[in-house]
Amino acid sequence: MLRRQGALLAAAVLLPLVTATQAGAAAPAARAGTTTPAGPAAVTTPAQPAAACAYTPAVPADNYKGIPDFDPVKAARPFSATLRTSQGAITFKALTDKAPCTTNSFRFLAEKHYFDGSHCHRLTTARLYVLQCGDPTGTGSGGPGYSFPDENLTGATYPAGTVAMANAGPNTNGSQFFFVWKDTKLSPAYTPFGRVTSGLDVLKKIAAGGEDDQNGPGDGYPTLPVNIKHVQIRKG
Q: What is the model's pTM?
């Protein structure tokens, strides 16, 4: 990790998955997003109603690639994404039918090479079982220069293989996301937007390697570096 201080969890709270930047100074690791999984703690938090898709300029704007357009027809087209990492490949099927605003943003950033050269900066191995990625600064506080609304939260659960957005509160999604490597209980506050189809073994290997506890017991930077070399988008 390039910069560990002031990183993942806005505080020494193990629950929220929020991004430090989005959360303000305390950037929880994107809410298991919340760029800090604000998740676990919020298990009882009611889900927020879905909002229309709109990408709103926001700070920070790290590795800025512009702001995506939203065409509902194009956004509904199915695709899969393969993350080529230093620990192996992880592929997930995007839930374009359930979270079109989110998947459209992910595809936009991937096709702009936004994630290339970044690394997954947070691993949790107690109470929450997630690997958080998507921050080009590697600190848990980075973002793409825009935010967008939550989706697909009604009845949301987070079994192993879920790919979901990290955030700093309702409708503050940016670029940070997380993989669930073991069934995890989170409040329905993190948009699920993909399902791992191959590479769950890679995630479990990373988890087995442990983390450095920099955010507290069972929460820190992964011991096995997870560098994202490239994200490949495939139609269908």
A: 0.84
